[in-house]
Amino acid sequence: MRIVTFTGVCCLTLTLLFSGCSPVINVPGPAATVEKDNAIQDARKTIERLLAEGSLTKAHDALRDALGGDTKETSLADLYTQVENRLLGEAARAEGEGHFDTAGSFYRMALGLYPKRSQLRTALVMTEEAVKLKIDECADELMKSGLVAYREGDLAEAVAVWEKIAPFYPDYSPSKVAIETSKQQIENLERLAPDKAN
After folding, report:
1. What is the pLDDT of residue 134?
2. The pLDDT of residue 48
3. Best exposed site among 19, 86, 113, 134 by fewest CB in 10 Å?
4. CA–CA separation, 100 and 161 (whole Å)
C-alpha cells in the first residue's frame, strides 16, 4: 500500500512539474497587498469625506461595505469607532426629542455594525446590550403613542404610528398584532357605515 501511495505522489509531482504547474498554493504577493492597502485608503477617504459632509448614514454604508470585503475591523479602527459613536449620539438626540422611529433606526444601524473585537467595543459609548435595550425602548414608546391614538378612536393614526416600528424592529410582535387588529376593525367599520356622503 505504501508503494502505491508513494508512486502516486511521485507521478502527481512529475505531472505538475512537466505541465508547468506548481503544487504550491497561490499566496498573495506584493501586488495583492498593495491593492488591498489602496482599497483601505480609498474607503478611509470616502468615509472621512462623508463624515465631514455630515452624511452619517452614507458613512455608515461605506464603512459596512468596506468591512464586508477583506478589510479587517482594526484597519479602520479610528473611523469605525467614530461612525458608531456618532450613530449612537444621533440616536440618543432623536430619542431625547421624542423621535423614537428615527432613534430606533440609528440604534439599529449601530447594532448592525457593532464591532466584534473587544478593543473597539470598549471605545464605544454604549455596550451592545444597551443598544438592544434602546431599540426595545423606542419600539415600546411608539407602541404607547399608537395606543393613545387607538383609545381616542383614531385607528388609522394608530396604525401609522405602529408601522414606524417595523423598519428598525421587524420582529416586534405587539405592533404586528395591533396593526392587524386595527386594520380588521377599520374594515368592519367601513362595512357597517359604507358611504356617509349618500
Report:
1. 98
2. 95
3. 19
4. 10
**pLDDT tens-digit series, residues 17-73:** 455 554 444 545 566 667 777 888 999 999 999 999 999 999 999 999 988 876 788
| Secondary structure (H, E, C), the chain | CHHHHHHHHHHHHHHHHHHCCCCCCCCCCHHHHHHHHHHHHHHHHHHHHHHHHCCHHHHHHHHHHHHHCCCCHHHHHHHHHHHHHHHHHHHHHHHHCCCHHHHHHHHHHHHHCCCCCHHHHCCCCCCHHHHHHHHHHHHHHHHHHHHHHHHCCCHHHHHHHHCCCCCCCCCCHHHHHHHHHHHHHHHHHHHHCCCCCC
Distance CA 52, CA 80 (A): 15
Residues 6+ apart with CB under 8 A from 118: none
pLDDT > 90: what percent of the chain? 66
- Where does the pLDDT of residue 99 fall: very low under 50, low under 70, confident under 90, or very high at 90 and above? very high
Sequence letter at residue 140:
D
Q: How many CB atoms lie within 10 A of CB 55?
A: 14
Residue pair 178/150 in contact by the 8 Å Cβ criterion: yes
- Are 57 and 79 in contact, with CB atoms under 8 Å apart? no
Give the model's pLDDT for residue 6: 52
